[in-house]
C-alpha cells in the first residue's frame, strides 16, 4: 500500500512538473526592443535623426518581432520532437537573433558624448595589439568598408589569446556565435545604417562614426570579457 501511495505521489509530481514546464514555456520572456539612452537626433551631424529613427524603431524592431515568432515555432518543434523543422528554422534564428544581438550592442557603442580616444586598459591593449590607436582605426575602417554587400565590422576580444582582434561578419551573423570573439565595438554597414545621409559613399560614413564612438562602453565590455 505504501508503495502504491508513493507511486501515486510520483505520478502526481511528474504531472505537476510537466504542467509547470508547459507554463514556463508558454510564458517565455519575449525579446523586446531596447530603449536608446539618447534622442534620435543626438548623434547629428554624424548620423541623422531620420536614419536613427528608421534604424531603431523599424529595422531593429523587425528583427525582434521575427526572432520572437521564430522562437515560438522552434519551441513547438522542440515539443513535438520535430528535428526537421528545428533545422529549417536555424537560418531565421541566426539572422534575426544576430540582428537583435548586433543592434543592441551597436546602440550602446554610440554616444553624443563619444569620439576622441579610449583611456586606460583599452588604450594599452590597442597599442599592444595594433601598434597605435590610429593604426587600429585605419585597419578596422578598411575591414569594415571592404564588407561585401551587407554586414558588420568588429573589434573583438579573443579570450584564448587575451588579445584584441578585428573581424568582419556578413549579414547579421553575430560575432561571438560565428567566430568566438567577444564583441566590443561594432560598425553596421548595412545600407539602412547610412544610405539616406551618405548615399553609396560608405567610407565617409565609417569615418564619421568614429566621432560618436562611446569608448567608455567599449572599455566596460573589455573589462567584462576579461573576467
TrEMBL record:
Residues the record lists as binding Mn(2+): 55, 103, 188, 192
Primary subcellular site in the record, as a coarse category: mitochondrion
Coiled coil regions, renumbered to chain: none
SUPFAM superfamilies the UniProt entry points to: Fe,Mn superoxide dismutase (SOD), C-terminal domain (SSF54719), Fe,Mn superoxide dismutase (SOD), N-terminal domain (SSF46609)
Cofactors (names): Mn(2+)
Database matches in InterPro entries: Fe/Mn_Superoxide_Dismutase, Mn/Fe_SOD, Mn/Fe_SOD_BS, Mn/Fe_SOD_C, Mn/Fe_SOD_N, Mn/Fe_SOD_N_sf, SOD_C_sf
Pfam families found in the cross-reference section: Sod_Fe_C, Sod_Fe_N
Described function: Destroys radicals which are normally produced within the cells and which are toxic to biological systems.
Subunit record text: Homotetramer.
Protein name according to UniProt: Superoxide dismutase
Species for this entry: Astatotilapia calliptera (Eastern happy)
Amino acid at each position: 500500500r505504501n508503495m502504491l501511495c508513493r507511486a501515486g505521489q510520483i505520478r502526481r509530481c511528474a504531472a505537476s512538473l510537466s504542467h509547470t514546464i508547459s507554463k514556463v514555456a508558454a510564458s517565455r520572456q519575449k525579446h523586446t526592443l531596447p530603449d536608446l539612452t539618447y534622442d534620435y537626433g543626438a548623434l547629428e551631424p554624424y548620423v541623422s535623426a531620420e536614419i536613427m529613427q528608421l534604424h531603431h524603431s523599424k529595422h531593429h524592431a523587425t528583427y525582434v518581432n521575427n526572432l520572437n515568432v521564430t522562437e515560438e515555432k522552434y519551441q513547438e518543434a522542440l515539443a513535438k520532437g520535430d528535428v526537421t523543422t528545428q533545422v529549417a528554422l536555424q537560418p531565421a534564428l541566426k539572422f534575426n537573433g544576430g540582428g537583435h544581438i548586433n543592434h543592441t550592442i551597436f546602440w550602446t557603442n554610440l554616444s553624443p558624448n563619444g569620439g576622441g580616444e579610449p583611456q586606460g586598459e583599452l588604450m594599452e591593449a590597442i597599442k599592444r595589439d595594433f601598434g597605435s590607436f590610429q593604426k587600429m582605426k585605419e585597419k578596422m575602417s578598411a575591414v569594415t568598408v571592404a564588407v561585401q554587400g551587407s554586414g558588420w565590422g568588429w573589434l573583438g576580444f579573443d579570450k584564448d589569446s587575451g588579445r584584441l582582434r578585428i573581424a568582419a561578419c556578413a549579414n547579421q551573423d553575430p560575432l561571438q556565435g560565428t567566430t568566438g570573439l567577444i564583441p566590443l565595438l561594432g560598425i553596421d554597414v548595412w545600407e539602412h545604417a547610412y544610405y539616406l545621409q551618405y548615399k553609396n559613399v560608405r567610407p565617409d560614413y565609417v569615418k564619421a562614426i568614429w566621432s560618436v564612438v562611446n569608448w567608455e562602453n567599449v572599455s566596460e565590455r573589455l573589462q567584462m570579457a576579461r573576467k
